[in-house]
């Protein structure tokens, strides 16, 4: 059974916030451990505690030496390889926006094709006339007829 969606907001109660931090940190350590084990990759985790515990050392996984080894290996890589697949929030949002724009264009094209197809069916059924068509519908109808004609010619020509 899944959990209900948690509203992401500052937890005002100090005790609750501390307990939540510890639980989430434990879950995060478990996930990094599973990722490293199941995928066979080197991973490390550095978690700094709450602001009021500034004097406390950050928690590291798997160990301070292991974390230092992974960080050293990462820093010794040439920059071209180091930054190749990294992304920041801005790049992520830009990529996500581009994907959504592509989806919107695809949906818009499909919508226009369906409208033209419906218009063609209405014309064939006698419900509408070509005189009713504006330039966009007429051009869409011509393109659709050309596409269907090419498909039929390709089928007739065979493989």
CATH class of the largest domain: Alpha Beta
Broad shape:
elongated
**What would you give as the CATH superfamily of the largest domain?**
Transcription factor, MADS-box
**Might you state the CATH topology name of the largest domain?**
SRF-like
In total, the number of domains comes to 2
Number of strands: 2
Mean pLDDT: 88
- How are the strands of the largest sheet arranged? 1-2
Main sheet overview = 2 strands, antiparallel
Q: In percent terms, what proportion of residues is strand?
A: under 5%
Order of helices and strands: HEEHHHH
Low-confidence stretches: none
Helix content: 55-70%
In whole angstroms, the N-to-C terminal distance is: 53 Å
CATH architecture of the largest domain: 3-Layer(aba) Sandwich
- Structural class by sheet pairing and helices: mainly alpha
Pfam family, one: SRF-TF
Protein name: MADS-box domain-containing protein
Subcellular location: Nucleus
Organism: Zingiber officinale (Ginger)
Topology:
Elements: H1 14-39, E1 45-47, E2 59-61, H2 64-76, H3 79-82, H4 89-125, H5 135-157
Antiparallel strand pairs: 1-2
Describe the 3D structure.
- This protein is mainly alpha-helical and 159 residues long.
- It folds into 2 domains: 14-82, Transcription factor, MADS-box (SRF-like), CATH 3.40.1810.10; 89-157, no CATH class.
- The protein is 65% helix and 4% strand.
- The chain has 5 helices and 2 strands, in the order H-E-E-H-H-H-H.
- It has helices spanning 14-39, 64-76, 79-82, 89-125, 135-157; strands spanning 45-47, 59-61.
- Strands 1-2 form a two-stranded antiparallel ribbon.
- The chain is elongated and about 80 Å long.
């Amino acid at each position: 059974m899944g959990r209900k969606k948690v509203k992401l907001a500052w937890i005002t109660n100090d005790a609750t916030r501390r307990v939540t931090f510890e639980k989430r940190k434990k879950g995060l350590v478990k996930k990094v451990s599973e990722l490293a084990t199941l995928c066979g990759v080197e991973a490390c985790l550095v978690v700094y505690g709450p602001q009021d515990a500034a004097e406390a050392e950050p928690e590291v996984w798997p160990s301070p030496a292991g974390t230092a080894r992974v960080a050293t290996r990462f820093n010794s890589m040439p920059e071209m390889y180091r930054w190749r697949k990294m992304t920041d929030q801005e790049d992520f949002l830009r990529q996500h926006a581009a994907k959504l724009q592509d989806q919107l264009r695809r949906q818009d094209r499909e919508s226009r094709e369906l409208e033209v197809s419906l218009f063609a069916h209405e014309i064939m059924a006698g419900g509408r006339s070509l005189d009713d068509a504006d330039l966009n519908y007429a051009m869409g109808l011509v393109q659709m007829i050309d596409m269907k004609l090419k498909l039929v010619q390709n089928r007739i020509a065979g493989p």
